[in-house]
Every structure is written in C-alpha cells, then in structure tokens.
C-alpha cells in the first residue's frame, strides 16, 4: 500500500509540475515573442528621411533601425539580435524561464525564443468623404 501511495504522489507531483511550469513557460514564450515584435516595430520607424522627403520612398535607415530596436530591448531588460534586410527589421529575443516544480526533478532552465519582423507602411493620409 505504501509503494502505491508513494508512486501516486510522485505522479501527481509530476503532473502538477508539468501543468504549472508548462503554462508559465508558454506565458514566457508569448512575452518574449511580444518583445521581439515590439522591438521590430520600433526599429521599422527609423525611416531614411532624405529619401522620403525627396521622392516619398519609404525606406529604413539600417543603422538607426538597429539602434532603435536595441534601445527598445535594453529599455525592457531583454536581450536579442537585430537584423535589417531591405526594408524589413527582424528581431530575435531569447529568455530563460526557471521552473518552480520541475526543478525538483532536475529541470533547471527552459529556454524560450521569440521572433518578430516589421517594415514601414504608409498610414492614412486623409479622410474620405
């Protein structure tokens, strides 16, 4: 009887650990993805003003885009990589979630990864009657 109760207790503890830490790891992934998308949008706001003023071309200034995206990440305490290709700013962010219950069985870190990309778009320039 004691072995059965002990096995049942270990099974229930493992199920609780998977439920709690699995949910929190998923929430961490969603948060990291949101950070990456927001940083990419921040970088995509770095327009090449000379090109825009001369002929209305929407083009990203790569150096300013990288700087804006990195400053956004630094402001929220996240780390990641920023790449600019053409007019698209791509940001990849990684984070580590430290499990609460699964650490009891040796799982000490769960790595989460998020990716976001953005490019400048022309907004509404007037109101239709």
Mean pLDDT: 87
* Strand order within the widest beta sheet: 1-2-3
Structural class: alpha+beta
Beta fraction of the residues? 15-25%
Helix content: 40-55%
Low-confidence stretches: none
Profile the largest sheet. Answer: 3 strands, antiparallel
N-to-C SSE string, H for helix and E for strand = HHHEEE
Separation of the first and last Cα atoms: 80 Å
The number of distinct helices, counting runs of at least 4 residues, comes to 3
Outline? rod-shaped
Extended strand count: 3
Domain Putative Flp pilus-assembly TadG-like N-terminal: 1-46
Pfam family, one: Tad
Protein name: Pilus assembly protein TadG-related protein
InterPro entries: Tad_N
What does this structure look like?
InterPro entries: Tad_N. It holds the Pfam family Tad. This is Pilus assembly protein TadG-related protein. With 129 residues, the chain is of the alpha+beta class. The protein contains 3 helices and 3 strands; from the N terminus they run αααβββ. Helix 1 runs antiparallel to helix 3. The radius of gyration is 22 Å and the shape is rod-shaped. The mean pLDDT is 87.
């Amino acid at each position: 009887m004691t072995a059965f109760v002990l096995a049942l207790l270990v099974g229930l503890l493992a199920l609780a650990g998977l439920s709690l830490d699995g949910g929190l790891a998923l929430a961490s992934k969603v948060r990291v993805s949101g950070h990456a998308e927001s940083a990419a949008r921040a970088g995509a706001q770095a327009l090449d003003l000379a090109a825009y003023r001369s002929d209305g071309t929407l083009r990203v200034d790569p150096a300013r885009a990288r700087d804006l995206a990195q400053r956004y990440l630094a402001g929220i305490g996240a780390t990641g990589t920023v790449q600019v290709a053409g007019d698209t700013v791509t940001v990849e962010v990684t984070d580590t979630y430290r499990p609460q219950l699964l650490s009891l069985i040796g799982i000490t870190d769960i790595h989460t990864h998020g990716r976001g990309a953005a490019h400048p778009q022309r907004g509404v320039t007037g109101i239709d009657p």
